[in-house]
Amino acid sequence: MLAEATQIQLYGLIFLFGSYTVSSLSDLRRLAAQTDFAEVWGLYTAIFFLIDAAQAAAQTETITYLTIKWMLILAFAAATASTRIYIRLSLMDVTAITALCATLPPIQTITAIILIAALNEILTPILKSLAQTGAYPFLPIVWSTNLLLITINLLQIPQTLTPLIT
Would you tell me how many other CB atoms lie within 10 Å of the CB of residue 44? Predict the structure, then answer.
């Protein structure tokens, strides 16, 4: 359960995919998405925190792994939003990433952060060419990461890698 997404997590990824699609198109056109998305993603993150807390209370998930997962999410969000050490992002972008990571099992949270960093390096030149300013639309990177994670989970790649990890 640590590596493979549950059914509710997969449905969550698919829900996010739809909202990321609409917000990414807006981000590409105007270099800004509607703030309503950030509010939805914030509420979504809170719901998945409650789901994780309920699983920990029912002991269907290890508390240590969930603690590590949420500490990673908080550290990433804090480092990105306030100090901008990792990547220079708007609060909306950070909220989108937080919602994505909140959906995932603990090991895939780390995978998501690595994918975001890699896709940022790969797609930044293309995305910067679409903007007139030094800034660039970042939500398409979150959208791409989400698509890769849906694909990984539908193909059950974590399940085939489990013997290699243990």
Answer: 21
